[in-house]
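Sharing a chain and its predicted structure for anyone who wants a worked example. Both blocks are below, sequence first, tokens second.
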Amino acid sequence: MRLNQIADNEGARKARMRVGRGIGSGKGKTSGRGVKGQKARTGVSVKGFEGGQTPIHRRLPKRGFNPLNPQDFEVVNLGRLQAAIEKGRLDATKPVDGAALKAAGLISGSSADGVRLLGTGELKAKLAISVQGASATAKEAVEKAGGSLTIIPTRKAKAQARSEVVKAAKAAKKK
């Protein structure tokens, strides 16, 4: 075998199709694109166009509401709180806050807005709880068990209160 005799296998390389070179080539006139106009041009894709039919994003109704600044809480139920106390992971004599809940493994601590206490389950222990939010049933259950519940304002609530104070100061300055 010599270097000048080395060749690819038959059919290993396919010659490129020359388009737009007359009807005898089989790829003349529209070059295999099938149409003239917008779809025949390069770089054009008509996304969401359904041939004049009303597109699906306009046929389907709008539903619900997405708030601009949603609050993202880690949720803890009273039943899980009681279970952690019974297992000895949470000390009922010390105040319960985000750090204590994280140490007990009840939350991951990844939430931006803190912890929200919900009323599912039963609480028997007397606790001093400090969280960023709580449901009405959770408040009742904590007070019924003899404990206390303190709501700590979130960063967003503090920023909102600050902006309201600034607005009030500007309004008073104008008068």
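Comments welcome. Residues 155-174 form the longest helix (20 residues).
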